[in-house]
Amino acid sequence: MWFAPVLHAEWLKIRTVRSLPGALLALFAVTTAFSAVAGADNASDPESDLLFTALSGAAPGQIAAISFGAMAVATEYHNDALRLSLAAVPRRGRWFAAKVTAIAASTLPVGLLSAVAALFAGRAGLGDAANGLTTAEQIRGVTGCGVYLTLMALLAAGLATLLRSGVATLAVLIPFVLVVSFVIGGAAGTATDFLPDRAGQVVLQQTPDGTLGPWSGLAVTALGAAAALLAGAWSLRRRDA
After folding, report:
1. Which of 82, 97, 71, 81 is nearest to 233 (CA)?
2. Do residues 157 and 236 make contact, with C-beta atoms less than 8 angstroms apart?
3. 3-class SS of residue 154
């Protein structure tokens, strides 16, 4: 079977499994709402990073992106659905590539739209302080935010394929980004700057002051997602459906 019909089939799965569009809707709603709240809370703080404040909804929004990536794969492990998928597409690499492409193609536009909405909501909360943001910084932040959310969804998809469980994937990644990275990372030194989530979020900062720059940080996240996908692909080829 050619790649295009396989991709179309995976796209139909995402559209028809109710929890998956719901996760994308949650991604948009959470990212926008939290940015609006953060903008209003930090409007009077002259030392706040304006771009990061306006796009800070990406931090909780990534939970929805991770959930989407994990669930998109986990549905294949319910009721032997994976056996049916592989019976239709015996070449496992082709099927997995189509699955990953469908996840990325679904997450990226929603991530970019969420970033634009979050930026406007955050700017509204910041008021006149938002005038300190340049056009180039805002374009970089919006683009980087959309790509970052997509990479986190792909990282979750790769890990879910490796673990063969959406629940296990969420049990690993959500505490990691909320506790290990967010709470411990700030006090653990520069080594934690290279964690996939912390590195990727540098692109959301107006004036990064760490080891990584905006795009090099996003590249670290991309490497993390690629490693997870490669591990997932290896597991898929080695194990029985």
Report:
1. 97
2. no
3. helix
Q: 225 is written with which tokens?
A: 């997602």
Mean of pLDDT values over 126-150: 93
Residue 1 confidence (pLDDT): 66
φ, ψ for residue 82 (rounded to 5)? -65, -35
What string of DSSP letters covers 5-37?
HHHHHHHHHHHHSTHHHHHHHHHHHHHHHHHHH
Question: pLDDT at position 22, please?
Answer: 96
Residue 195's CB is within 10 A of a number of other CB atoms, namely: 21
Q: Give how far Cα 127 sits from Cα of 35, 145, 160, Å.
A: 13, 21, 41
Q: What is the pTM of this model?
A: 0.93
27 pLDDT above the threshold of 80: yes
Task: Tally the residues of the chain.
Answer: 241
Report pLDDT for 188. 57
Q: What's the pLDDT at 238?
A: 87
User: Do the Cβ atoms of 174 and 63 come closer than 8 Å?
Assistant: yes
